[in-house]
Design goal:
Helix content: 10-25%
CATH class of the largest domain: Alpha Beta
Order of helices and strands: EEHEEEHEEEHEHE
Distance between the termini: 19 Å
CATH topology of the largest domain: Aminopeptidase
Strand order of the largest sheet: 3-10-4-9-8-7-6-5
Radius of gyration: 17 Å
Shape: globular
Number of domains: 2
Number of strands: 10
Largest sheet: 8 strands, mixed
């Protein structure tokens, strides 16, 4: 509608505006009910807009996998494709670990893979946003009972392998203050492309 777009809430709370001005925010507001949330990536710090209340705001790095990095090898047998039957477990894991917005139909945006331990979904990773030639890794998370096993890296390697095989460049977003994750991503060949502002807004 006008200068704004958004996914159906059950798919994702991600939204977009053509530019950060009152007209675009008003267009976005007309697409939302009171209490609805919208998540934006903006190059500039957020300025208060009528009809919106900021819930979360944080500097966010966009990292892109270095094309010269070694290609990931084949996925180990422990990595499994996730489907609609896995959605309840995916929602439970993302609610616990909070890797970013994840809704009941977010898995429809791309392929998701996971690792189960004794039937429990221990870790998962998938893809979300896609633009020509690039695909975003998303929902990278590990259950607290299964950290330290290297599961996230196995899954990221598999998702990157699939993206690279179809000609897409993998990218991801990470909070600027998450130095531990940034170090892991850099070791995997990711490089910082740009700094943006991550916003979660609520329609009032």
């Amino acid at each position: 509608m006008g200068d704004a777009r958004r996914f159906p809430p059950e798919v994702s709370v991600l939204a977009a505006i053509a530019r950060a001005d009152p007209r675009a925010f008003a267009d976005l507001a007309r697409m939302c009910r009171p209490g609805d949330r919208a998540t934006l990536f903006d190059a500039q710090p957020y300025q208060d807009q009528p009809g919106w209340e900021i819930v979360v705001g944080a500097p966010m790095l966009q990292m892109v996998r270095d094309a010269s990095s070694p290609s990931p090898g084949p996925a180990p047998p422990v990595v499994k494709n996730l489907s609609v039957a896995d959605v309840p477990d995916m929602l439970e894991l993302t609610k616990l670990t909070k890797p970013g917005p994840f809704s009941s139909r977010t898995h429809e945006l791309g392929e998701y893979v996971g690792i189960r331990v004794n039937g429990q979904l221990a870790a998962m990773c998938g893809e979300r946003l896609r633009v020509p030639g690039m695909a975003e890794m998303s929902a990278i998370c590990t259950h607290p009972d299964h950290t330290g096993q290297g599961y996230a890296r196995l899954l990221m390697d598999e998702v990157a392998r699939r993206m690279l095989a179809r000609g897409d460049t993998p990218f991801l977003h990470v909070r600027e203050d998450n130095t531990r994750a940034i170090a892991v991503y850099e070791a995997m060949g990711f490089q910082v492309r740009r700094l943006s502002n991550f916003l979660v807004l609520k329609r009032v």
